[in-house]
Every structure is written in C-alpha cells, then in structure tokens.
Amino acid sequence: MTAKGPGFLGDLPPGHRERLLTVAREVSFPAGMRIFEEGGVADRFWILRSGRVALDTHEPGRGAMVVETLGEGDLLGWSWLFEPYRWHLGAQTRDAVAAYEFDADQIRSAIDEDPAFGLAVTRCVAAVAIGRRLRAARTRLLDMYAPPGTARQARSGGAAP
Questions:
Q1: Is 155 a residue whose pLDDT tops 50?
Q2: N or C terminus: fewer CB in 10 A for the chain?
Q3: Which pTM value belongs to this model?
Q4: What domains are there in the chain, each with its CATH number?
C-alpha cells in the first residue's frame, strides 16, 4: 500500500509512513454505522481514505453531541496510544467510509522497538489529539453554551446535531 497526500499520513516522514502502511488493513463501513462508543476499549485506529465520520460525546438529557466531523486523510482515534486505552469520544459514519485500520497493540510494539518511528507517530497523534481536537471541542462548547441567537457555526467542519 502506498498513500501520501493530506492529513495524518502526509505528516509522517516517508519511511515511517511506509512502515505504518505495511501493517494496515483496508476496511469499509456503511453510512450510519457506530464505529466505537465513548468509554469503550481503544484497541485500534483508522486513517480515513474517503467518507466522513462524526465524533460525538453523550450529554445527559441531550444525547449525542457532535464535536467534530472527520474526512479524507484524518486520523480516527488517538486513545489507543495513551493509557487507559479507552475512547474519549464516540464515532459514527455520516456516509460510506473507506479506511486503513491498524491494530493498536501491534503499533505500540513497533513504537517501543523503534524510538524514531515512535517519536514520529506520537508527534503526529499528539498534534491531532492535543491541537486539532481540543480546538474543535472548545469551539463546539462555545457554540453550545452561547446565549440563544448568538451561536456561531463550528469552524471544525462539524454539523449541528
């Protein structure tokens, strides 16, 4: 498998990208499928090749609230890298999705075996987890709790629930 382009894979150095892709499995999900639930075991992750996935959190009395919508090239799931390996959000497809799937144990072992590979992958995951997702969640929270009639459209690309 070879892939570059925008997103997570494009951010990895070529050798590390190829190493990661050698253990990828191509998968697909139909529209409307629940991929994982908040609090569930994070034992795998995906890099989206096509389609969209909504990340959500359950809010009592309101149900699932969309935090961000992911698309081509995006990393789906970062909780597999950090203990306790539990999903911090839920995920549901918006339309049909094609993705590369990775086994978390296998990638964590590769990270432990090769510090340069581990640093590259960890930096890319942290950029998504700490940078992009935190900003998207903050923007969504501001929109949710703004006074009525003043909510802004989330800049994360997420649609209102």
A1: no
A2: N
A3: 0.80
A4: 8-141 (2.60.120.10)
